[in-house]
Design goal:
Blueprint: E1 6-7, E2 12-13, E3 18-19, E4 24-25, E5 30-31, E6 36-37, E7 42-43, E8 48-49, E9 54-55, E10 60-61, E11 66-67, E12 71-73, E13 78-79, E14 84-85, E15 104-106, E16 111-112, E17 117-118, E18 123-124, E19 129-130, E20 135-136, E21 144-147, E22 152-157, E23 163-164, E24 171-176, E25 183-188, E26 190-193
Parallel strand pairs: 1-4, 2-5, 3-6, 4-7, 5-8, 6-9, 7-10, 8-11, 9-12, 10-13, 12-15, 13-16, 14-17, 15-18, 16-19, 17-20, 19-21
Antiparallel strand pairs: 21-22, 22-23, 24-25, 25-26
Length: 196
């Protein structure tokens, strides 16, 4: 029986990796045994997925990204080209710290821009948007737009990615996305969809 997913001939999917139906794995990628990849994902060129990495459904990982052990990407996450996940805070070649890997959780619908870096032990809230080249050093709130070095809160975004007319200040207000019509409420620095 043919596989329900596509693997380019130059790529390696190790025995023991779980790959969902409809997923496409492109040139020169390496999927380790034990890795879990959901359905309908796109794994770009030269992507590495570690043995203890978990990738949800409909995730798009662009070229030159490594998803190391203990990194979890929930459904509908986008990882831009050459963005970087890390899993050890004080890495030393002479002092391996594989028992010190920290968990990184990227929640549903997050977009991470090209060349961004995410330090270990971080949780990125659902539908947050990380600007290209940013360095994420702390947890990111849901629907937050962050960028810079280090990444700082610059605004709020809709599930569709458009910027919302919500203030950064500690206030209570609501907004409607001008692109798709979704409605949001913010109280202090917590943004939720009206239907959540």
């Amino acid at each position: 029986m043919a596989a329900e997913y596509f693997v380019h001939p130059t790529s390696v999917v190790e025995e023991g990796a779980a790959v969902g139906a409809g997923t496409r794995i492109w040139h020169f990628s390496h999927i380790m045994p034990g890795a879990k990849i959901g359905c309908d994902c796109t794994i770009g060129q030269n992507v590495f997925v570690g043995a203890r990495a978990v990738i949800g459904n409909r995730v798009k990982i662009q070229n030159n990204v490594s998803v190391y052990d203990k990194v979890t990407l929930e459904d509908d996450v986008f990882c831009g080209p050459s963005m970087v996940f890390t899993n050890v805070k004080r890495a030393r070649s002479a002092f391996p710290r594989k028992d010190a890997f920290e968990e990184t959780l990227v929640k549903r619908g997050v977009s991470i821009g090209a060349n961004a870096t995410v330090l270990p032990g971080i949780t990125i809230g659902q539908c947050a948007f990380i600007g290209a080249g940013s360095v994420v050093t702390k947890d990111i709130l849901p629907y937050a737009l962050v960028y810079g070095v280090p990444a700082e809160l610059k605004g709020w975004v809709c599930e569709c990615g458009e910027k919302l007319a919500l203030a950064l200040s500690l206030s209570e207000e609501s907004a409607t996305c001008q692109s798709c019509g979704r409605k949001y409420r913010k109280k202090d620095r917590e943004v939720k969809g009206i239907d959540e």
